Amino acid sequence: MPLNLKLVTPPVAEPVSLALAKGHLRVDFPNDDDLIAMYVTAARQYAEIYTQRAIFTQTWLRTLDNFPLWTGWNGTTNPVDRQNWPYYAGLWDQLTIELPWPSTVSVTSITYLDSTNTLRTLDPAQYYVDTTSEPARIVPANGSYWPTVMTYVPGAVKITYIAGSYGDGVDINTCPQTIVMAILLLVGHWYEHRENASELNLKNIPLGVNTLLDQAKLEIASFRP
Question: Model's pTM, two decimal places?
Answer without folding.
Answer: 0.86
